[in-house]
Design brief:
It is a single chain. This protein starts with a strand and ends with a helix. Strand 2 and strand 3 form a beta hairpin. The chain has three helices and four strands, in the order βββαβαα. It has two domains: 51 residues, Molybdopterin biosynthesis moea protein, domain 2; 35 residues. The chain is elongated and about 55 Å long. By secondary structure, it is of the alpha+beta class.
Length: 100
Amino acid sequence: MQKIPISLAREGMILAKEVTDSAGRVLCGPGTELSQRLLDRLANMGVQFVVVEGHPVAMPGEKSLEERLAELERRFEKVAGDPVLAMLKEVIQETMMEKG
């Protein structure tokens, strides 16, 4: 899932989390497919961000999954012989891969 500005949201994207207004009222639930009409309505209501399924938008300064995995390898290479830290690295790696 990815939190993106409403201006980058596109028709066909699926909400991963509910969208609320400034008073906390739910405007759309998770699983809602975004249409241009809905995006316009949300923007007019002052919604600035939405959380969508997957990772559909490359944000400026954001690293790719491959770059983050390579960085993880570099960070753990000095302690490669430690079984506890190896398990920790594996858990972090699995989490990174699940989130994309």
